[in-house]
Structure formats: structure tokens, C-alpha cells
Design a protein that fits this description.
With 576 residues, the protein is mostly helical. The protein is 65% helix and 2% strand. It has 20 helices and 6 strands. The strands form 3 sheets. Strands 1-4 form a two-stranded parallel sheet. A two-stranded antiparallel sheet has the order 2-3. Strands 5-6 form a two-stranded antiparallel sheet. Helix 2 runs antiparallel to helix 10, helix 5 packs antiparallel against helix 19 and helix 6 packs antiparallel against helix 7. The N terminus is likely disordered. It is found in: Membrane. Belongs to the major facilitator superfamily. Proton-dependent oligopeptide transporter (POT/PTR) (TC 2.A.17) family. GO terms for molecular function: transmembrane transporter activity. InterPro entries: MFS_trans_sf (IPR036259), POT_fam (IPR000109).
Length: 576
């Protein structure tokens, strides 16, 4: 044991403790790699450019995704099936590549470099998309090749670039606030709301202004405008480098996880000491993992504690020898894996929660058989998603002044609601959106039956504005739930795995879309046949879309109960 302790002590870097009045205590550094100054770096002054960058990225993402099917069919002359397939492939890839971006950010590049590189890649992709809309379809063989290649390459680059943006911008913004400082920690909770406001501001403008430009003026300009915004985002992140606080990348998180599993498996027959102080850990305040604070030992998942249990062979290590991390890990490294294991059930509840947004295509199909005329105006069914966006744009900035004071009186907490409570409330509203959609559909089907329209594939004399509540409920659910998941992923994740945990939260969005697709296929195969049109026939007046919405509402309720169980048993991170 003395030899091992001497070795560990020799590995500890002698870094003077920063002055509490001048420097941050969360391990952040400035652009020169020195301890970050509280006065001259971080906080809201640094976040303005980050939020502006997120707005630019949101403009680019929704500027492509909102109208991509129309572009592929009208400009690239693809079939409806091919266009829809390519759109789904692009959307899915955008939410899978964050695993790669998060890995690079946490392990090697750091969040700022990952963001800048990703924005450059997005800008290149947007340039190619803009050129693909300008290049004529047929002039000669070279141009034909360009016309076919540019959009595919442009979509690939944008999807790859968003993989570094989605997990890194929310975490990089949160890095600007020192969570060991009570005042800054309170401001960080407000940042999450403004981050989501920036996301939806870009979405709103892209879904209205950019879509109009693309459909009525020019696709080249429609893609060119978000290209300029993404380039401005690159300039903004580079110009404000001196204002930012940076977290050092901690090396490969995947390698550290594998080391813990391997070391624990090697010692499957070794007894874990009851005194946690006997487990392996670096002496002093420094962690063995770069960019991470020490994590205190927690009870539970004791199998992994074997990885930090010192055996006779470990104790024989001399000062001149190197400890093999595949045989012996520190408590902090073991706790990283424990935290991920505890976070996983909470993340999994995000799959059902996100099915509310994934059900928007069903909402639109429902709106197509409702009266979408108001006076002399015709309202496209898809335009009602604006209610969702407007609800977020109003509620997100008003959260602190309206929700927090009311919630504080109830919970007794200064911040109003914890991250878990926000997620739970979001799940309640996600369930209400499904209930609202089911009730609207029940009334619509009753009107169709009374009007003799059951066997006619036509709209029913019921105003489409009755759909507004279900869209608004989803908007409220996202302000509470999505922001709650973002906060949870940052606050509870290990310091050196924050981008990776944010990416895991984003993956739940993709899994929710896949889940809804599977449910629809199962429902269709089970309900169609024996004289039945099924729940979702081509003529919805003959179907039972209301029963599908009731099923989804029931799943949301069961998911809420499962989340409540996970939340009550969850052990929060203990960092020094």
C-alpha cells in the first residue's frame, strides 16, 4: 500500500489552488489554458454569442429539414417515395451523428473546437445545397454529374456537422457558469430556457420566412440565407474565444468505461472493502481524469467497486512502474460508469415522452379531414405546428418570471423546480396532448357519422382550430420536459462525459420516431382485415384514429409512472 500511495502522489500535478475571488472552481480554463477568471470570462457576456450561434444553426437545420421533401421532388425530380425516404434518412442521421460529435468533444477536441469545425462542415454542406439548386439539370455530362452529386454530398455534410452542434452548444453554454458559485448556478438554470428559445426562434423563422422564399422566390436564395447565418456563427465563435471558459477533454470515455468493466471482471472473486477509503483514488483534490472533478463513492452497483479494490498484485507496484488501468481504476473512474448506469433508465423514459412530437404527422393527417377555412382564408394543416412553436417562444422567456415564483411557493426551492420535476410536468402535458387529440377525433368522427360522410374521403364540418390545444400542450411539454432533460444530462453527467450524455438524450428523439413507426405498422397489421378498415385507413372517416391517440395517451401515463419510480430511486451525483 505505501508503494502504491507514493506512486499516486507522484502522478498528481502540483497546481496551486486558485483564488476563490478571482478564478472558477469547476476546473474551467481560459483560451490560454490558465484557470478561468470569474470577472473576465464566462457568464452571460460569453453566452450571447453562443445563443446567437445556436440560432444560426437552428436556421440552417430547419431551413433544410422543414421543406426538404418539396426540394427533392420539385428541384431534384425524385419520386415521392424516394424523397420521403431521403428525408427520413437525413433526419435520422442528424440525431445519430451526435454520438460521434460528443465523443470527439469529450475525448480529444473539446467542445469549442468541435463546434467550430462542425459549423464549418455545415457551411460547406449548405453551400453545396445552394449550388445544387442553381446548377441546371441538363447541359452536359459533367453538369449532370454535379446536379446529382451536390445535394447528396451537401446533405451528408450538414448531417455530419449537426452531430457536433446538437450535443456541444447546450453544454458549452452551461460551461460558462461555475456551478460551485451559487449565483452563477442560478443563472445557468436560466440559460437552459434561453437556449431552447434560440432553437425555436430559428425554427420559427425557417418554417415561415425561409419556406416562403424557397417556395415562391428561389431555392438558391432559400438555402443561401441559412448558409450566411452558419458562416456568421463560425465568425462569432472565433471572435469571442477570449470570453469563453473551456473544459479540458478527458480522453476516451469509452476506454475508461471498458477499463472499469475489465478490471471488475478480473476481480470477480475479490471482496470489496466495507471502508470506501481503502479503494484506489488519487490523493489530494485533483482527479486522475483531465477536466473532471473527483467523484465521491456511492453505495450500490458494488460489482464495479471491484475495479477500484486494491489487491496484493496492485499493492506491489513500485514508484517506477505504471499502474495498469485495465487492472486497477480510481473511485472517480468507477463512479463515472455508475452515474451512466443510473442515468440510463431516466433517458429511456424520454423515448415515450418524445412520441408526442413524433405524432405530428398524425395530427396533420387529422387536420386534412377537418374544415381548414376561416372566413376567406385557407389554413394548411401543417401550419398549425406554429402553435407549438409560438407556445415555446412565449413560455420559455417567461419561465423565470411566471413559473418560478409560483413553483417556489409550492416546492420551497429557489429555482422553482428541479430537473426531475420539470421532466415529470412535461410528461403530464405530453399525455394531455394525446388526450386532447383523442377527444377531437371522437367529436370529428361523431360529426362525420351524423353528416353521412363516413364513406366519403372528405373533410368534416369541424374547424381545424380545435387542434390548437394539442399542439400547444406539446409546446408546454417541451418547455418543461426537453429543457429538463437538457439540464439533467448536464448536471448529473460526469464532468468529462457531458457532451456524450447530451447526445444520449438526443438519441431518444430518434428512437421515439422509430417507435411510432413500429407502433403504426403493428396497429395496421392487427386492425385491418375481416371487413374492418383498421384504425388508420386512407379514408380516416372510416377509421378509429381516436383509439390510437388513446393508446398513445395510455403509454404516456405508464411512462410517467415509470419515470416517477426512477426519479424517486435516483441517486444524484456527488462531486467534490
Amino acid at each position: 500500500m505505501p508503494a502504491l500511495n507514493s506512486f499516486l502522489a507522484s502522478q498528481k500535478q502540483k497546481v496551486p489552488a486558485p483564488d476563490n475571488e478571482q478564478y472558477t472552481f469547476n476546473g474551467s480554463v481560459d483560451v490560454r489554458g490558465k484557470p478561468a477568471s470569474k470577472k473576465h470570462t464566462g457568464k452571460w457576456r460569453a453566452c450571447y454569442s453562443i445563443l446567437g450561434g445556436e440560432f444560426c444553426c437552428s436556421m440552417a437545420y430547419y431551413g433544410v429539414g422543414t421543406n426538404l421533401v418539396t426540394y427533392l421532388t420539385k428541384v431534384q425530380k425524385l419520386s415521392n417515395v424516394a424523397a420521403a425516404s431521403n428525408d427520413n434518412l437525413w433526419q435520422g442521421t442528424c440525431y445519430l451523428t451526435p454520438l460521434l460529435g460528443a465523443f470527439l468533444a469529450d475525448s480529444y477536441w473539446g467542445r469549442h473546437r468541435t463546434i467550430v469545425v462542425s459549423l464549418v462542415v455545415i457551411t460547406m454542406g449548405m453551400i453545396l445545397l445552394a449550388l445544387s439548386a442553381i446548377v441546371p439539370a441538363r447541359i452536359d455530362s459533367v453538369v449532370i454529374s454535379l446536379h446529382d452529386t451536390l445535394p447528396s454530398l451537401g446533405l451528408f455534410l450538414t448531417a455530419l456537422g449537426f452531430g457536433g452542434i446538437f450535443p456541444c452548444i447546450p453544454t458549452f453554454g452551461a460551461d460558462q457558469f461555475d456551478e460551485t458559485d451559487g449565483v452563477e448556478k442560478e443563472q445557468k438554470q436560466l440559460y437552459y430556457n434561453w437556449y431552447y428559445f434560440a432553437v425555436n426562434s430559428g425554427s420559427f423563422i425557417a418554417s415561415t420566412v425561409l419556406v416562403w422564399v424557397q417556395d415562391n422566390y428561389s431555392w438558391g436564395l432559400g438555402f443561401g440565407i441559412p448558409t450566411m447565418f452558419s458562416a456568421a456563427g463560425v465568425a462569432g465563435f472565433l471572435a469571442c474565444m477570449k470570453l469563453y471558459r473551456y473544459q479540458k477533454p478527458g480522453g476516451s470515455a469509452l476506454t475508461r468505461i471498458c477499463q472499469v468493466v475489465a478490471a471488475a471482471t478480473r476481480k470477480v472473486n475479490v471482496d470489496v472493502p466495507t471502508d470506501s477509503s481503502l479503494l484506489c483514488e488519487m490523493p489530494g483534490e485533483e482527479s486522475a481524469i483531465i477536466g473532471s472533478r473527483k467523484l465521491m463513492h456511492t453505495d450500490g452497483l458494488k460489482f464495479f467497486d471491484r475495479a477500484a479494490t486494491i489487491t496484493a498484485s496492485n499493492n506491489a507496484t513500485s514508484i517506477d512502474e505504471t499502474i495498469d488501468p485495465w487492472k486497477l481504476c480510481t473511485v472517480t473512474q468507477v463512479e463515472e460508469l455508475k452515474i451512466l448506469a443510473r442515468m440510463l433508465p431516466v433517458f429511456l423514459t424520454g423515448i415515450i415522452f418524445n412520441t408526442a412530437q413524433a405524432s405530428f404527422p398524425l395530427f396533420i393527417e387529422q387536420g386534412q379531414v377537418m374544415d381548414n377555412h376561416i372566413d376567406r382564408f385557407w389554413i394548411p394543416p401543417a401550419s398549425l405546428t406554429t402553435f407549438n412553436c409560438l407556445c415555446i417562444l412565449i413560455l420559455a422567456p417567461a419561465y423565470k418570471k411566471v413559473v418560478v415564483p409560483v413553483a417556489s411557493r409550492i416546492t420551497g426551492m429557489k429555482q422553482g423546480l428541479s430537473d426531475m420535476q420539470r421532466i415529470g410536468i412535461g410528461m403530464v402535458f405530453a399525455m394531455l396532448s394525446m388526450v386532447s387529440a383523442a377527444l377531437v377525433e371522437m367529436v370529428r368522427l361523431d360529426i362525420a357519422n351524423n353528416s353521412g360522410l363516413v364513406n366519403r374521403s372528405t373533410m368534416v364540418p369541424m374547424s381545424i382550430l380545435w387542434q390548437a390545444p394539442q399542439y400547444m400542450f406539446v409546446g408546454v411539454a417541451k418547455v418543461f420536459g426537453v429543457v429538463g432533460f437538457i439540464e439533467f444530462a448536464y448536471e448529473q453527467s460526469p464532468d468529462a462525459m457531458r457532451s456524450l450524455c447530451q447526445a444520449c438524450s438526443l438519441i431518444m428523439v430518434t428512437l421515439a420516431s422509430y417507435f411510432v413507426s413500429v407502433i403504426l405498422k403493428i396497429i395496421n397489421s392487427v386492425t385491418v382485415g375481416k371487413g374492418s378498415h383498421g384504425w388508420i385507413p386512407d379514408n380516416l372517416n372510416q377509421g378509429h384514429l381516436d383509439q390510437l391517440f388513446w393508446l398513445m395517451a395510455g403509454l404516456q401515463l405508464m411512462n410517467l409512472i415509470a419515470f416517477a419510480y426512477c426519479a424517486t430511486r435516483y441517486k444524484r451525483k456527488l462531486a467534490t
